Amino acid sequence: MAANEHAPGSDVAAGFILRRHHWHPAEALPWLIALAAFFVFPGYLALGTQILIWILFALSLDLVLGYAGIVTLGHAAFFGTGAYAAGLLSAKLGWSEPLTGLAFAAACAALVGCVSGWILLRYRGLTLLMLTLATTIMLYELGNARADITGGFDGLTGIAMKPLLGAFEYDLYGRTNYLYALAVLFVLFLAARRIVYSPFGQAIIGVRENVRRMSAVGSPVHRRLVTIYTVSAAIAGVAGGLHAQANAFVTLGALSFERSATVLIILILGGTGRLYGAFIGAVVFLLLEDHLAKLSPAFWEFGVGLVLVLTVLFARRGLLGLIEDGGRAAARLWR
Amino acid sequence: MSVPILETRALHKNFGALQVACEINFRLEKGARHALIGPNGAGKTSFVNLLTGVLRPSAGRVLLDGEDITRLAQAERARRGIARTFQINELFRGLTVLENVCLAVGERSGACNNLWRPAGAAAGRPVIDEALGLLEALRIREDALKRVSELPYGRQRLVEIAIALGQRPRVLLLDEPAAGVPSAESHIILEVIERLPKDIAVLIIEHDMDVVFRFARRITVLVAGAILTEGTPQDIAADQQVREVYLGTPAHD
Of A90, A147, B108, B192, which shows the fewest CB atoms inside 10 Å? Predict the structure, then answer.
């Protein structure tokens, strides 16, 4: 049964996979909006930077949850590790060059991801969920126990930043921070996008779809999962590092259960398994939080719960799914 | 006798008091067309699970082409050339037929170790072409871009086989390949099985005696986890013991 390379229709069927990784014009939209926001809302750049950091964090979760199907309630472990790594590097060791700080944050988080993933990813489902949760709680308590290093609940202070690339000072209005976070997000998004459309990316989707069959076709499932978990941890670590650098401050909140839960809500709200869900989820969640939480915290929390229930029940593919469906319906009407 | 491609020696498996495999000495010759039959609960699927490494035997050995693979995990055995299909479909339901087969081909060829080059880049073309070739051979090429979950069950059974062939197996274990397929369509599956490449050793587990006698050149009868007898289809058809336990009691003759 040799491959029949010149069969009629070969290119039609193959074209689907051959073109799948090509850029769609609509993919320019989030980046154009992010750049436009820089000029249109100069007073909201601090919030904008927070949104970009949450997008990056949710993007890292999408790789494991949306693509590999690893359900986790412990992703803050990597965000927090990155945040403390970048923070302590500057505050305690006096190394304040921002990009190497991020690289250090990524390396530390990747190490935690690789080691914990190696142990945890032999399990699945509820067991895995509880183990990821337990890991984060342990790290949180470790941070609490060594408050002499981490600053505990009072927070880690004394984080300073040298000018970015030796040229761009971190200004009071957060202009540099915003563009810095946007550039980092863009680079890591490109990396995540490449991974997702690679043969390896297809393999982790296969694990999500049917782990039994993947083992049966000879896939080293555990190695595949640990690999994507490590990559995801590194990206989450960079998000944490950005958080520490942008705020010049880290508290135990970076490692908290709330942070793990919030990133999960953001991703499910936006839509899992399609990269851009992280963007929509983070923007909607944080803008609503910024407006509604000020009006009434109780109403905000109730509202988040309600929206999440509606999403999970009626829009399983999240807000991005709704937008896609709406776009398709509009295209049909147009024709 | 030449070295069999797959062999078990005194293979034994029990779950507590329940014995599912008992002193099984089984040989699958190179290029064989071999059927494994037996009444419900005889331990046929458990035997497949022991061969593929889903289950670890309580005692005994499994050899692939003379090499002891008893301690190897399922995925490692699959990479060495043991492929199987499942009695109840185990497919990547949310993916297209082409993607399903590409996963098997990509994992076998090592393409899936690459996490940087797009699957659709020029270097990925051999994987896609090989998968399309298999779909062509199984005559499901026109379904290449359909989601598996949208296909009728009979066609899904063919995807099961296409995935297994994507592994380029030396040994192919077919666990009731026509199970659940309407009888009007089962001939499509049978034709595919009859056209399988000659160099693959095929072990088919089947209830349907028409299928078994049409396909197999050798038959093993499993009863209560142990081999009752083994022989050519003629031997088995004439065997009084087999008729009693499996084909029906002599009273019906």
Answer: A147
